[in-house]
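go over my protein:
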Amino acid sequence: MMAIQSHPEAFPVRHHINTKLITETARLVSELGGFRYAPNTPLVGANAFRHESGIHQDGILKNRDLYEFIHPEDVGTNCQLVLGKFSGRHALRYRLNLMGYDDLNAEELGVLFLKFKQLASTKVFIEDEDLVTLMGKVPPSLKGTTLK
């Protein structure tokens, strides 16, 4: 289905399948069938659209088609840029901007990135709470909320 949808020039046929239900359907089949599919299962696995590698994250942020010629929304899921020891500055800045830390200059980002890398060497994934701690202040967008 996704090959037909993603490469119409190679497959001169059409289908009327709602591909946005693929992930939900896979979860339902897994639950009803009493089995789990692997995290690296194409299209529906937890890692199918998860990116931790700095070069992949940078590519996704610049032009997502470089690494996702099938967009996660087309199969009912989303892209995840996971911050960890392999992440780069671009992904860190992106996450900080999403959190409301959008006033960092290059020098401040460089200092923060060193702290981030040090923390990432001891922790598998860096969460928003960790970034708030590294920043030393809660961004305006999160004031009054409770981080999980």
